[in-house]
Amino acid sequence: MPQDGSRYQILLIITDGVICDFEKTVDVIITGSSMPLSIIIIGVGNEDFTKMDELDSDDELLSLNGRRAQRDIVQFVPLRNFLTSSGYNGNYGVTVMARLAKEVLAEVPGQVTSYMNSKNIVPKLQQGNLTASICSFCSSRILVLNPLILAIISILIPHRHFLSTQQCSYLRNLFGFLRFPCFEHA
C-alpha cells in the first residue's frame, strides 16, 4: 500500500459477533495505524460489544506489549443505537440511515488528516471537471469504494459541521471532486 497519500483505504466490517482473538486484533490495528487506513465496524444484534468499544480508541490510543498505535483508525458503531424493536427509531428510515451514515463516517475526516499529518503529506490539488475528478478519485484515491459510500461522503461532507478548517482543506485537495466552502473558525 503506497504511503505517499495517493491512496487511502477504508475497511468496513459488519459483524454480529464478538472478537475471539482480541490481542491479535489489537496487534493488527496497531500495525495498521501507520498506514493510510481507517476501519469502520458496525455491530449488528444484541451482543456485548464492549471489546469493540475498546478498539475504538477515542480516549486513549491502543497499546499492546509495549507497542502503541500511532493514531486512532477505528470507528465502532452499534446498529442497535439507531433501531427499535419495530425497526426504525421512530423516524423515517431515510433520517435514521442518514444519522447512521453520519456516525459511521464521523471520524474518517480526522483519520485522513491525522495520517497526512503523520507523513507530512500535503494532498495535490486535483484539476479537471467533475466527471474526471470522480474517475480519478475512484481509480487512484481508494482501491475499492462502494458507490453508496461515495454518495454518503458527498452528502455529509458539505455539511462540514464536524470538519475543522485544516480537515476541510485536506479533504478538498485529496478528494478533488468535492467542491464546498470551508467553515472558517474564529
TrEMBL record:
One of its GO terms (cellular component) is plasma membrane. Pfam families: Copine (PF07002). GO terms for biological process: cellular response to calcium ion. This is Copine C-terminal domain-containing protein. Residues 3-123 form the Copine C-terminal domain. GO terms for molecular function: calcium-dependent phospholipid binding.
